[in-house]
Write a structure and sequence with these properties.
single chain; alpha+beta; globular; Alpha-D-Glucose-1,6-Bisphosphate, Chain A, domain 4; seven-stranded antiparallel sheet; 171 residues
């Protein structure tokens, strides 16, 4: 089994960003992303929430054909998402895990803080299961490079959508 990794971290509120996103607004945006990922991720066409117990969601997403340079996992996948928000609006860290049903693929969305209370960061980590790719091969290296190029765009796109929702009073 070959797992290909990628990760990216960006500040939620870099210098000059407006409006400023609070930790509560960030979590509200991430909660919305669980049920409406197509608003945040251009390669997702549709999403149907199959189960939702408040902390864990089982959803089925369909990817658009030909987007993102080929299929990341499959045309349609089920994902189980666990959303563990910070204890308080200033507690710092929180985590979402996205596990693809029937695969070892996994995504983590991590909210963290820095030295100052105002420092807020969003990290996405990706673990893509590719049993068809030989570990250490040129194909694996090329796939990892592509995923690593995609990772910061995923974080920045999510933050841009959340910032837009905050500006429009949706969060």
């Amino acid at each position: 089994m070959t797992i290909i990794y990628a990760a990216a971290t960006l500040p939620v509120n870099p210098p000059g960003a407006t409006p400023i996103i609070t930790q509560d607004q960030l979590w509200a945006g991430l909660e919305r992303k669980r049920g409406e990922p197509q608003l945040f991720i251009p390669v997702i066409d549709t999403c149907v929430v199959l189960e939702n117990d408040g902390e864990t969601v089982l959803r089925e997403v369909k990817f658009k054909d030909g987007m993102g340079g080929g299929q990341v996992v499959a045309p349609t996948v089920q994902e189980r998402i666990t959303h563990i928000k910070p204890i308080t609006s200033t507690a710092g860290s929180g985590l979402e895990t996205f596990a693809t049903v029937g695969s070892a693929s996994r995504v983590l969305n991590i909210v963290s803080t820095g030295e100052k209370e105002s420092d807020l960061y969003l990290t996405f980590t990706f673990e893509w299961d590719h049993p068809e790719i030989e570990a250490g091969s040129e194909v694996a290296a090329a796939k990892q490079k592509g995923y690593q190029t995609m990772a910061p765009r995923g974080v920045s796109g999510t933050l841009a959508q959340i910032r837009k929702m905050v500006a429009e009073g949706q969060l």
